[in-house]
Design a protein that fits this description.
2 copies of one chain form a homodimer. Chain A is an alpha+beta fold. Helix content of chain A is 57%, strand content 13%. Chain A contains 5 helices and 3 strands. In chain A, a hairpin with a 2-residue loop joins strand 2 and strand 3. The longest helix of chain A has 17 residues. Chain B binds a DNA duplex (30 and 30 nucleotides) through helix 4.
DNA sequence: TGAACACATGAACAGTTGCTCATAAGTTGA
DNA sequence: TCAACTTATGAGCAACTGTTCATGTGTTCA
């Protein structure tokens, strides 16, 4: 890992970092991204995972699309979403691991 | 890194992860944590770094204390804050690196 | 073409967030 | 003890967030 200390002085970079973290800070979005980290999925599949309404999912997917975290392709009537950024997988895993440690949950 | 995929099904762990990310999702808090990642600091020093009011800093420090991300000790009139959790440093760095890459900023 | 299906979008609303302002609380030296 | 200094806190408020509800858009198949 490079020396990141100088990056703290670059407001644009700091802001961009906060935006990434913000995307991961909501329960529904985290679940969506978690599901997508295990493979691309359609909206109805994501709905099963998250247990919120179709509309709510779509709104969150729009936010994630706008921030460049997921990308979409159409397959007939369905729209298939996938992670647009490998970075996200890393952050999800690091965040989960740390949360699990704090909560004393064993990692396989 | 262990296999984290099972953790996505543990709502408590997922929620804990979102709370960590939430702490990192605000510009002021990110600056505070960034400054602290380079060593413990008093409130007035943090105020210089962040350029917001003393009250605003204190409110954010309270949130970070409540979430267990920073710890405080008194030194005379001053109160010295430091990171309570090594995890945070990792996340700050990973987030910054990724943000810098996205923004095509060179890392030393 | 039209009905059925899958997803997206806009408005509206309650809940939350981060700030300011005023003030309180803790510490030191005179 | 009191004034000066540093930090913390509560109330209040404008801005933002995540959801629901209603409806729109795009696609398939008969």
């Amino acid at each position: 890992m490079g020396d990141t200390s100088a990056l703290f002085e670059n407001d644009d970079v700091v802001y961009a970092a906060t935006q990434i973290f913000d995307a991961l800070s909501d329960f529904t979005r985290f679940q969506i991204l978690g599901a997508l980290s295990q493979g691309e999925k359609g909206v109805s599949e994501l709905q099963e995972v998250t247990n919120v309404s179709q509309s709510a999912i779509s709104h969150q997917l729009r936010l994630l699309r706008d921030r460049g975290l997921v990308s979409a392709r159409r397959d007939g009537q369905r729209v298939i979403y996938s992670l647009a950024d490998e970075h996200v997988t890393t952050l999800l895993n690091v965040g989960l691991e740390h949360a699990a440690e704090d909560a004393h949950v064993e990692i396989a």
